[in-house]
Design brief:
This protein is an alpha+beta fold. It has three domains: about 375 residues, no CATH class; about 100 residues, no CATH class; about 110 residues, Immunoglobulin-like. The chain has 22 helices and 13 strands. The strands form four sheets. The protein has a five-stranded antiparallel sheet, with no helix packed on it. A four-stranded antiparallel sheet has the order 7-6-10-11, with no helix packed on it. The protein has a two-stranded antiparallel sheet with strand order 1-2. A hairpin with a 2-residue loop joins strand 1 and strand 2.
Length: about 675
């Protein structure tokens, strides 16, 4: 007995040493990561940062405007917390993820009792390829911590189920699930996809508790099942109360507010003449609504003008309409009309807009494809079914194959407009950004002149910013002679333009005369020769001089190791997932067969957990698939970041069950053969 206890003690000590070693290796790999900054993203990274600064300054989420309550507050609270502790953001995110992995293996140790297997599961989850330096998860954005919060939820719920006979452990697991659920809910507004898993798991656990004839403290255990929901309700009340004190709005965020959802739902219920999958309120629908809604008509000069052309792009590609960006374009338009001067004024406007559009739909003035609705989701249509099914398969394969993942080790170029912002972010977050002052340069040469007036030149980028450039005008007697010495303005037509450029932007030359007329030409139009009105221009050549960023040898080695690990996951995971699903089906059939024969069952805890994980994965996948079909392309690492740990947890538990099943079957068969020999 003493020897057995000593062995258990030694195994625990070895497990702790192995876990610490794995944590050390992970931290070594990620220590050199720098954050990827997008300082001008008002609704994303910049919003998270500005609100964190406001929290630190004791001003809650800052001055009220159309973006203040646009998204959940928890990530900004998290950034402020890290700032208070002087912990770099990416290190803090990794520490949270490591803690969630440790919590998970603690919660499942009742079914995975082999210490070696526990360490393997921990390693598999710890080195999740999405956490090894993917660019999207290095951003100052909420998805950097979302996978950790999802693991906490699953760990807590699974721990509640497995420890249903132990009040103390069940309470701890319930609290863990509550912390994860409430934090995730205040991080992303679409976390409702996890609720079916939490609710069904609670019901199943309650059934097992009640069915246990020898069970004690049944009422207390049933109460513990409600703890995650108590945490969730309290977090909503807490955030809503703070928002009410600061802004007079008792809501957790605008995304879930009835007034904005009501207005958006009213606009999206109007029937399209020409159905467009991803365009909730196309131009032809807007034109109809302007005629019957005075509130919406106030936005027409903004929505139909050039003010919000930036919202008619997706990843730099021009679109002919707003599509999924309409949700943000309308908020900007309402703000430009002055309705975000106060929360009450914004609320009143959205309620008025919803009332006018809904009344027009109900009376027949506007064709309606659905009844009155208050939601940000597009109305369901049968046309969405086929693309949703296709996208669900693609999304599942995207996660299982770890597509789009690699360790990011590049340079983000600074522009003259965002240097100060990036440095402010670095100082507040105690985290270096991936950039370098040195930049790429380009030189363009050619000639251009106006028949009667002098011509000036300037450089504009795709963000409509004028770029500092060295512009040299040269003698162009050859051009003057080419046009029969008629136009004196052709004597200095030749030019060379040199400026620093950034690979993620497009650039244009603007030629303008003294009368204010101008012509825009992309620098990509090499050898362009165009005559427009009195203008003649010809681009003769272009030369790019690229700067190669300096990366230390240590960073190169770590980056290479990270990418090797990612390649291993990509190679092994599809096969492991196939085996895991197949083994789940086999074990499920085995349990059903033994139930029919009224024989003793093994692995029913594991099977229930595995079906729960698979169900949650399907919920997330289908939701992303529907968004991709009805709104915008959402099959990417950012939106599926929570799916990677679910797949890893599923595969690890399933493979362990298969291992135990084979070992048990082999042992029984060996004993049977030994008996036959006797």
């Amino acid at each position: 007995m003493k020897i057995k206890k000593m062995n258990e003690h030694d195994n625990k000590r070895i497990l702790i040493i192995v876990l610490l070693l794995l944590i050390f290796l992970k931290m070594v790999l990620v220590m050199g990561h720098k954050m990827y900054t997008i300082p001008d993203s008002r609704y994303d990274d910049e919003l998270m940062f500005i609100r964190a600064v406001s929290i630190t300054n004791g001003k809650w989420l800052g001055a009220y405007n159309n973006v203040t309550l646009a998204k959940g507050a928890f990530f900004s609270i998290w950034l402020a917390f890290l700032h208070f502790l002087s912990i770099p953001m990416l290190i803090g995110n990794q520490v949270l993820y490591i803690i969630s992995c440790l919590v998970f293996i603690w919660c499942i140790k009742k079914i995975i009792y082999n210490k070696k297997l526990l360490s393997v599961i921990f390693a598999a989850l710890l080195f999740n390829p999405a956490t090894l330096g993917n660019m999207q998860l290095l951003r100052i954005y909420r998805d950097g911590i979302f996978p950790a919060l999802i693991i906490l939820i699953f760990a807590g719920i699974i721990g509640m189920f497995l420890n249903r006979s132990d009040c103390k452990k069940m309470f701890i697991c319930s609290a863990i699930a509550g912390i994860g659920l409430s934090s995730a809910w205040q991080t992303r507004e679409d976390t409702f996809w996890i609720l079916p898993f939490v609710i069904i798991a609670g019901i199943i656990t309650a059934m097992f508790i009640i069915a246990d004839r020898n069970g004690k403290n049944i009422v207390r255990k049933i109460i513990y099942l409600f703890i995650p929901f108590v945490f969730l309700i309290f977090s909503n009340l807490f955030i809503s109360t703070l928002n009410y004190i600061a802004y007079g709005r008792f809501i957790s965020n605008d995304y879930m507010s009835k007034d904005f959802q009501g207005a958006y739902g009213a606009l999206t219920r109007v029937t399209h003449e020409h159905f467009d999958y991803r365009n909730p309120v196309p131009e032809e629908v807007r034109m109809k609504i302007y005629q019957v809604s005075p509130a919406f008509n106030e936005l027409k000069p903004l929505l139909e003008g050039d003010v919000f052309e930036g919202w008619k792009t997706f990843h730099g590609l021009p679109l002919h309409d707003y599509y999924a960006h309409f949700m943000w374009a309308i908020r900007d338009a309402v703000a430009n009309c002055g309705y975000y001067e106060s929360p009450a004024k914004a609320k009143e406007y959205y309620n008025r807009l919803a009332k006018e559009v809904n009344e027009a739909c109900d009376s027949g003035l506007l064709p309606s494809r659905t009844g009155k609705r208050s939601t940000l989701a597009s109305p369901f249509s049968r046309e969405y079914l086929a693309p949703t099914v296709k996208n669900a398969i693609n999304a599942a394969l995207f996660v299982i194959r770890f597509d789009g993942l690699s360790s990011y080790n590049n340079t983000r170029w600074l522009t003259s407009s965002n240097q100060n912002k990036i440095r402010d972010m670095e100082l507040f977050l105690n985290q270096l950004s991936v950039y370098d002052i040195a930049r790429n340069t380009v030189e363009i040469w050619g000639w251009a002149f106006d028949y009667f007036e002098n011509v000036g030149i300037k450089v504009i980028d795709s963000m409509n910013n004028e770029i500092p450039a060295t512009i040299i005008k040269k003698d162009s007697t050859d051009v003057y002679n080419h046009f029969n010495s008629i136009y004196d303005t052709a004597l200095e037509a030749r030019f060379s333009v040199r400026f620093e450029f950034y690979s993620d932007l497009d650039y244009y030359l603007f030629f303008f005369n003294e009368s204010g007329e101008q012509i825009k030409i992309s620098i990509k139009d090499e050898n362009a020769y165009v005559e427009i009105s009195n203008f003649i221009y010809h681009l003769e050549g272009i030369n790019y001089d690229y700067y190669e960023p300096i990366i230390t040898k240590t960073d190169k080695i770590k980056n290479k190791i990270s990418n090797i690990l990612i390649i291993i996951y990509k190679f092994l995971n599809p096969a492991i997932t196939f085996i895991s699903v197949f083994s789940l089906l086999i074990l499920t059939c085995s349990i059903l067969y033994r139930l029919c024969k009224r024989k003793e069952n093994c692995y029913y805890n594991e099977i229930i957990i595995l079906w729960g994980l698979l169900f949650a994965f399907v919920c997330r996948t289908v939701m992303i698939a529907y968004v991709s079909a009805s709104s915008f392309p959402a099959i990417n690492v950012l939106y599926l970041s929570s799916s990677y740990p679910i797949v890893i947890m599923f595969n690890c538990i399933s493979m362990c069950c298969l291992f135990y099943f084979i070992r048990r079957y082999t042992k029984i068969k060996t004993q049977t053969n030994a008996g036959d020999n006797v």
